[in-house]
TrEMBL record:
Stored InterPro entries: Cyt_trans-like, NadD/NMNAT, Rossmann-like_a/b/a_fold
Protein name: Probable nicotinate-nucleotide adenylyltransferase
E.C. number(s) listed in UniProt: 2.7.7.18
GO MF, any single term: ATP binding
Keywords: ATP-binding, NAD, Nucleotide-binding, Nucleotidyltransferase, Pyridine nucleotide biosynthesis, Transferase
Designated gene of the protein: nadD
Catalytic activity entry: nicotinate beta-D-ribonucleotide + ATP + H(+) = deamido-NAD(+) + diphosphate
Family: Belongs to the NadD family.
Enzyme class (EC, first level): transferase
Domain (Cytidyltransferase-like): residue spans on this chain: 6-160
This protein's pathway: Cofactor biosynthesis; NAD(+) biosynthesis; deamido-NAD(+) from nicotinate D-ribonucleotide: step 1/1
Highest taxon, organism lineage: Bacteria
Source organism of this protein record: Piscibacillus halophilus
Gene Ontology terms describing biological process: NAD+ biosynthetic process
PANTHER family the UniProt entry points to: NICOTINATE-NUCLEOTIDE ADENYLYLTRANSFERASE-RELATED, PHOSPHOPANTETHEINE ADENYLYLTRANSFERASE
Length: 187
């Protein structure tokens, strides 16, 4: 059976924290691949700033040279708010011979009980949590923890820096170029 890690996010924009997290999980759990799943509309967040197509372009640029990382546009096909339960249900139907993990950052663990259909979802995937700066206490028994050296980077901090005309930390060269070309996050 193939072991695939699903990694959902708004990726507004994608950054090296996402990349390092995926690399740590791929290695530690010896997965075959990780599929990044950009959300079309984030379910529990106010709307993303960049358009879905722009977030997908940036993800493609960041993952171009990463053979074990793929992008699934399934949530762009489903459209509307992207609930993980629906996404996983579709993927399991399409890939019945695959074991799926669902990867989240440490900041999301305490929110898991509020996710749509979470009890059912927990039976469909193995959740994997990765430590994140500022979130070191975990108390959620269904999450398999993977440790990595913390990467103090977030999309929020990057957007703030760009808005304040400061040099942002944690973007790849190509993604920064795309952001500048398209005038993203300037206001
Ligand atoms: N630096 C990081 N270390 C560990 N996990 C991270 C890191 N950045 C993001 N994640 C995790 O990656 C997933 C997708 O994150 P998302 O696209 O929302 O980025 P973000 O940096 O958390 O964005 P924002 O600051 O806008 O909330 C989430 O599960 C989040 O917890
Ligand atoms: O299904 C839910 O109820 C749910 C609630 C909050 C977040 N998620 C998923 O968690 C992933 C990370 O979310 P975010 O908001 O940090 O980009 C992304 O794939 C979301 O669709 C899912």
């Amino acid at each position: 059976m193939k072991k695939i890690g699903l990694f959902g996010g708004t990726f507004d924009p994608p950054h090296i924290g996402h990349l390092k997290l995926a690399k740590s999980v791929l290695q530690t759990l010896e997965l075959d691949e990780i599929w990044f799943i950009p959300t079309y509309e984030p379910p529990h967040k106010s709307d993303a700033i960049a358009k879905p197509e722009q977030r997908l372009d940036m993800l493609n640029l960041m993952l171009e040279e990463e053979p074990n990382f793929k992008i699934s546009t399934i949530e762009y096909e489903i459209k509307g708010k992207s609930y993980t339960y629906e996404t996983v249900k579709h993927l399991r139907k399409q890939y019945p011979q695959t074991f799926f993990y669902f990867i989240i950052g440490g900041d999301m663990i305490e929110d898991l009980p509020k996710w749509y259909n979470i009890e059912e979802l927990k039976r469909m995937v193995q959740f994997v949590g990765v430590n994140r700066k500022g979130y070191s206490e975990y108390n959620y028994r269904d999450v398999l923890m993977v440790n990595m050296e913390e990467v103090p980077v977030s999309s929020t901090a990057i957007r703030e820096d760009l808005k304040n005309r400061k040099e942002p930390q944690g973007l790849t060269k190509d993604v920064l170029h795309y952001i500048r070309e398209n005038g993203l996050y300037e206001n």
